[in-house]
Amino acid sequence: MEDKYHDWVTLLPAVQLPYNTSQHSTTGKSPSLVKKGWNPSLPVDHLEKNLLTIHATAKDFHDMWKRTCDKAARFIAEANKYTTKRCDKFHMEPDFKEGDQVGLHYHEGDRENAVEVKPAEEFARKHPVFPVTLVKPHFQTEEDKFPSGKKNPTPPEIVEVEDSPGPVKRIMKAREIRLDGKDQK
């Protein structure tokens, strides 16, 4: 099967059946098992490859379906490997302890790593479990924020120069020079 082959009328059963009979991460069961209580038997379970009576279309469909499933399995394995590598590269465990004051940026989201907080009374109607990525350390004072003792530097004074040419009238991308009555860059 070519990569650019998109005959969805022919391919839909080949995609629908494996999707409905494969185990999903949300429920841990296949959609067919959840809806009907049983998984249907697949054509590959009944197709004997060495029979002479196999219809050519059925054999071609079986081969195409097998190649598609193998290709999908390869892509899923590569995607899982890439995602795991990226996550492990940038993931850091939070160093919060129970009782620490934290800042929280709340928005609707569904993440696996979460913390439970006891919100103030005005926020009591919000759900008390939040993703760890939304929790940041809370700083009471400037010294807490900058523990090394350095304070924010004061901005430098602006000194006006006496020989300044005046306010800027326009900013150009390139300098233009007029030669022989024509503007040139």
In short, what is this structure?
This protein has five helices and six strands. It has 185 residues and is of the alpha+beta class. Among the domains are: 8-90, no CATH class; 102-145, no CATH class.
Task: Note down, in words, how this protein is organized.
With 185 residues, this protein is an alpha+beta fold. Among the domains are: 8-90, no CATH class; 102-145, no CATH class. It contains five helices and six strands. The strands form three sheets. It has a two-stranded antiparallel sheet. The protein has a two-stranded antiparallel sheet with strand order 2-3. Strands 5-6 form a two-stranded antiparallel sheet. The chain is flat, with a radius of gyration of 32 Å. The mean pLDDT is 73. It comes from Austropuccinia psidii MF-1. One of its GO terms (molecular function) is nucleic acid binding. Residues 141-167 are annotated as: Disordered.
SS field, number of helical segments: 5
**What would the average pLDDT be, to the nearest integer?**
73
Order of helices and strands: HHHHEEEEHEE
**What profile does the largest beta sheet have?**
2 strands, antiparallel
Features:
nucleic acid binding; 10% strand; two-stranded antiparallel ribbon; flat; alpha+beta
Write the layout of secondary structure elements.
Blueprint (H helix, E strand, L loop, with lengths): L7 H14 L9 H6 L6 H4 L9 H35 L11 E3 L9 E3 L12 E3 L3 E3 L4 H4 L31 E3 L2 E3 L1
Antiparallel strand pairs: 1-4, 2-3, 5-6
Helix pairs in contact: 1-4
InterPro entries: RNaseH_sf
GO molecular function, one term: nucleic acid binding
Organism: Austropuccinia psidii MF-1
